[in-house]
Task: structure prediction
Amino acid sequence: MRISSVLAKDQERILCLPAHGRGLGLPPRLRQLLKKRAGIWDLPEIPELGGPLEPNGAVAHSQERFASELGVKRCWFGVNGATGLLQAALMAMASPGQSVLLPRNVHRSLIQACALGDLTPILYDLPFMEDRGHVVQADAKWIEKILRSSLLKGLDIAAAVLVSPTYHGYSCDFTKLISQFHQRGWPVLVDESHGGHFVSEVDDRLPESAVFAGADLVVHSLHKSASALAQCAVIWLQGERVAPEVVQRSIGWLQTTSPSSLLLASCEAALDEWFTSQGRERILERIRNGFEISDRLSKLGVPLIKTDDPLKVVWHSGRDGINGFDADAWFLERGIVAELPEPGCLTFCLGLAPQKGLAGLLARHREKIMLAYKNSLQSLSPFDAPPTPLIMKPYISCRDAWRGPTRKSSLKDAAGEISAELICPYPPGVPVLIPGEKLDQSRIDWLMKQKTLWSDQIPCSINVVT
Ligand SMILES: Cc1ncc(COP(=O)(O)O)c(C=O)c1O
Result:
């Protein structure tokens, strides 16, 4: 099968990312551009256009305009997703040999940045919800416990990171958290990949964006939480703690020298939606519709996990006795593409495309699935929290573990070994093991149990440091 043939196929319902829902939620300006002669929009960095790192041209002008709209110092568009900009941000905030304080649910891109930039990731644990198997957000008390830990003493920590909202939509209350880190003199990077729409502030039920809560650097994945094409992202910089030149240089280390002009136009068109009255009206409509869909599903008896993001619908399928992977396969066979299957639930991303009649459709399918599985309904929870320490410093450097000599070890016999790789059950990209971490028996037992829940997503053997 050819890639183009796959792309040309239509599904009945797209409830996954990118958030534009296969074009239905693309901003009008980008649609118009795409209607022109195919390929007309593919230009190199000619002077009139420029690029994210160029001082002049339409891209620079657009970036300046959005930074000023948001009241921040600078912003840069990115064409390698939030991944590329998160990596650039972390490498701008810390120098080789320094440590960075990261939550345990950090996206793997930041662990990779640690390996690339020779930074030490200090991972702090997060609260865990056993009924669904999710890590959720830390509050100020939790962070205080982390900050008081003797394990942080003597470490040269250069910066702290928060991930909010999470893939499922759990957002943190930034009121105290950012200042707790600032009081230590650490700049704060917030991975707000899934919360771009919070910036619009179109509905007061939306959580506060990290940009307004004073984070130094905030990254948005514009294809996850705005209406841009895949790979589009933006990073915002404010305050005095991080110098713009350093961020600019860091982006230059990682960015392609040929950023796609179509993707840059898509970043611009998606951000225009946050700042124009028609765009804001469209976002508001989607958000209201998201709240309505969840309300209606709850009224129809569908057990939902409530999170803070109205554009995510998390069906707690485990409470119905159904594994999220089985449910996902059921929907896929019927042309309905969900975003995130997990053992205990199935997450649908509503995105920014109109979703007519969705609550009824999902509720009807849930009834049919339950009927089909009536003889094999299983109790799935409680899920076991990972036996990770409150604070984890890798046994050896992430860079050395990843790049040095390795050998294969069967996972079940790997107690006492140092991992040379990341293990990340798809999709949230959140590592359950990182390079440089030492495995003990309780971790192996937990991973072996995860293997039964996530089947092929946790390998039988892993690369360990020799
Ligand atoms: C929390 C979080 N941060 C960052 C990323 C990376 O985003 P992108 O796909 O735009 O590179 C993801 C992707 O799933 C994510 O879930």
Observations:
- Residues 314 and 347 are 4 Å apart (CA to CA).
